Amino acid sequence: MEYNKSTIVTEFILLAFEDSPQFQVLLFMACLIIYITCLAGNIIIFLLIYFDINLHSPMYFFISRFAILEITFVSVIVPKLLDILIAGRNRISFVACFLQLYLGNTTGITECCLLTVMAFDRHLAITNPLRYLDLMSQWCTKLAAFPWAVGLVASSIMTIFTASLKFCGPNIIDHFFCDLAPLQNLACSDPHVSNLVTSILAILVAVLPFIIIMGFYTHIIITVLNIKSVEGKYKAFSTCSSHLIVSNLFFCTSITVYVQPSNSQHDKFLAFIYTIVTPLLNPFIYTLRNRDVKQAFFKKL
């Protein structure tokens, strides 16, 4: 079908999971339960760290900020998805779509950078324990602000390049939220430059942080293996394992989607994992694998 290039698209239609109409109510219930559990879990983590003085350390400071970020991230995506599933309101205005794109990218990129900062924190604590508290007391606030600065700038660039494309007819997005690749695929103008900029930024803000994190943990493992005390080894591994699980789950899915987007159902499934399922699992991973958090939780009961 040919479209008039003078036409201006004013709204988009999100297909979400329209290919499975018989499961719409079930999907709604599942997403609602996941969303409520995610909010409750991350709020509990934040409040535990805020009110328990034993958890007032750099590591838990970053975990509390990570919990806030997860609440923000999932709240950008899920409310509209729930509206689509239960009420069928799958139309979204041009401005609202690009606002969701901007906020989703901002929180997603910020998460990549914050996970890197958290890996640096664990690396410094294990490889240089004598200077750890002194250094982190100076850097903590700046390190927590840095991911947001990167997220805001990188997301602005991605959104501006995507919004500069011409949308003159096709307006059906085969996704459950406004994301980069599905939007770029609808453009009437040549998206080559936008795709190139997006891919380069995806490598810088997703692939590079993941490589840095793996580098930190390689050095951590080498350092821990040289610890003579079995208890010391266990404590070091237990404090790092939660973060490593969360990082791998988030990065492996998001990198697959953004560095090599295929606009397929497979990408939609992976996006569901890192935008909705991962924020749900994080509070349980940190609680179940962290003795201090578990003690603080049961003490408050």
UniProtKB/TrEMBL annotation:
Entry membrane topology: Multi-pass membrane protein
Location(s) in or outside the cell: Cell membrane
Residue stretches spanning the membrane: 25-50, 62-86, 139-161, 200-225, 237-259, 271-288
The organism's place on the tree of life at top rank: Eukaryota
GO cellular component entries: plasma membrane
Keywords: Cell membrane, G-protein coupled receptor, Glycoprotein, Membrane, Olfaction, Receptor, Sensory transduction, Transducer, Transmembrane, Transmembrane helix
Pfam families: 7tm_4
Domain G-protein coupled receptors family 1 profile, chain residue ranges per copy: 41-286
Main localization category: membrane
CDD domains (alphabetical): 7tmA_OR
GO molecular function: G protein-coupled receptor activity; olfactory receptor activity
Family: Belongs to the G-protein coupled receptor 1 family.
PANTHER family xref list: OLFACTORY RECEPTOR (PTHR26453)
Name this protein carries in UniProt: Olfactory receptor
Species per Swiss-Prot/TrEMBL record: Eleutherodactylus coqui (Puerto Rican coqui)
